[in-house]
Design goal:
587 residues, alpha/beta, Gyrase A, domain 2, Isoleucyl-tRNA Synthetase, Domain 1, 4-stranded parallel beta sheet, 20 helices, binds arginine
Amino acid sequence: MSTISEILSSAVGSAFKAEGLPEDLGLVRTSDRPDLAQFQCNGAMQAAKIAKKAPRQIAESVLGHLEGDTRFSRVEIAGPGFLNLNVTDEFLTSHVNAIAADERLGCPTVENVRKVVLDYGGPNVAKAMHVGHLRASIIGDSLRRLFAFLGDDTVGDVHMGDWGLPMGMLITEVKREQPGLIYFDAEQTGPYPVESPVTIDDLQRLYPVAANRCKESPEDLDEARLATAELQAGRPGYRALWQQFFDISVSEMKADFSNLGVEFDLWLGEAAVNDLIAPMVDEMKASGVAEMSQGALIVPVSEEGDNPELPPLMMLKSDGAVTYGTTDIATIEHRRQNIDPDLILYVVDQRQHLHFEQVFRAANRAGVTGKAELEHIGFGTMNGADGKPFKTRAGGVMKLRDLITMAIEAADERIEEFGLAEEIGTEERAGIVRMVALAAIRFADLSNHRQSNYIFDLDRFIRFEGKTGPYLLYAAVRVKSLLRRAGDAGIVPGEILPPGDLERGLVLMLDRLPEFIQAAYERRAPNELCEFAHTLAQEFSTFYQNCHILSEENKALQASRLALAQLALRQLLLVLSLLGIQVPERM
Ligand code: ARG
């Protein structure tokens, strides 16, 4: 289904064409000045340069072609040559009824379905997930939902960090604490105990200790590096111990992600592609893509015009250990072999941009990408009030889990203060508190353009007023309750009638969903969805304040207004679901 702007663009485009001007100058969009007109077209300004005529004169000729088009109620030229356009209420009505009858609420699917891998989340084995992973998870999750909604064939991969130096650090650190373990006996090849010698708490405690030690002492760093290289080369005891780290970390991550409502199709990590590395590296050497440099194997990736020059990507360190970049290249190879995607989106911190630039160039040189386009979807940091990445009060890394707990406590207080959920049982209430907390976190994060940094301000995020997740939940629940009450009273939604002044704003907004969805999709920008949801909720609120529904005596008008409310709710719920935000039945 086309939006009204699209339908009008084609009418105005034809008018430009009839004047011998480019059709695309007829682009119509929602007016910047809704007080003056519903839609506008600024094409005459540009046409003036091409035709070397005054823009007003062109606008007048274009206008001449639109006369007699019954869809328009009023067409005017404003200022130097802007076209201000209004459509008839009849046209609006037939359009909005069509949207209501459409299962997809007016949203088309993509013409060319693509296979899209989304690489997001990216937690690391043995480390607690932190707020950076929060952003990667919810932006990635939202994009996956959006792409899937538009018809693309999506595969979400968590791509865990599980194969680098931190693993060697941990192995040596565990050895320091428990040197007698069978895993460290180089003569042994197993079998190894089923039970893990460490818990997740041990891992999260040991990793910072090990990292510090390696920062301070070059010998300890060397030892960790050696252990990493041995692990990667397949030393049985290290592999077995690593598997324990992996298993306990994954169950921890799964709990965190399920808490957040984030899902993945694939639970692969860097280690999963280890066996592909040796043959791939051999080929890269043979083809000359990779070369030796000071004992290490590198891929030069600099290109003409780079400023500054891009450093080479390290494939193998001099001790044979692989790097973050090596596993990323091998993962592209793995995805090509198993999925053969058209597009891979890497939803990863903007600070890794250089890394991805190197990886993409190296992958293209190595010819491992197949038909896949590679795209880094970078995002900014979530900061504390000091403008630095958000920390705990004590200055430590804020764990995702603690952040969610904080939000739940805040949501609980707010709900109480706002007088909500008063007559609701404990269990249902707990569910509502959770949904409010997560809506607050997700909406606050997604409503900022992903590239910008934002300040974590829980008090603001958790409010029921303003541009917040809780406000939208409240709005949606209000409509749900209206529809329930109408149902109880035997009132059913009917045909939508031509809008009056009080309904027109809502109707015009209901037409714009595809526009925002398309913008979000093209720019990989969930904030467009947030914008739509918030504006729609505001339009609904104005409509609802001014229009009686349950008490309306004109039955046709009542059924029409109820249908508008229902359509608004369906759109709101759709967009919230694309943002990964769950809505309670009541609160
Ligand atoms: N584990 C990485 C980190 O914590 C993120 C992984 C992102 N994905 C990728 N293919 N490199 O920074």
